[in-house]
Write a structure and sequence with these properties.
Blueprint (H helix, E strand, L loop, with lengths): L3 H13 L3 H22 L3 E3 L11 H9 L3 E6 L8 E5 L5 E3 L5 E3 L5 E2 L3 E5 L2 E2 L5 E2 L5 H6 L6 E5 L19 E3 L4 E3 L4
Parallel strand pairs: 1-2, 1-7, 7-10, 10-11
Antiparallel strand pairs: 2-3, 3-6, 4-5, 8-9, 11-12
Length: 186
Amino acid sequence: MQNKTELRKTLLASRNAVTTEQRRLWDQQLVEKIMTWWSIKRPHTVGVYWPMRGESDLNAAYATLAELGVQLALPVVVSDKAPLKFCAWRPGDPVIQDRYGAAVPADQHIEQQPQALIIPCVGFNKHRFRLGYGGGFYDRTLASVPRPHTVGIAYAIAETVFSADPYDVALDMVMTPSITLEQDQA
């Protein structure tokens, strides 16, 4: 089994090799799954992500959710060892890049406590543990109380085998275009 650093490199290379056409198709399938999930769970506030480094682009879902009155929020890194904070954001609002290259709201004055988080995954395993970029920001966030409902987003090529570290927090659900892993299924 590869160490997590090597595994990240392998998974990111696989994700970056996906063609634009295939990515569009998979993203559309994920948008449809997100909307189905939302129609069942109906959270009023949802933490979302701005796609970077080949992550799934769910902006079409964000636009529809905003039209339905859902308050969206983007994650903001406060410090290297702190949980993420989430700031109100709507499609079309200005964003700026943080030191990691992630888009964050230009106006960070309105903080939200999302009922649900849609979280990008570099990789995931059958137990719904997420492999991210290695900063631990989402794990620290999910260790906080109250814990929001979590939906990991990835392409099926990101499913892999790795052992969770003691500080890793399993997601409630992982969605790919072709599979959905849920808490009671693992």
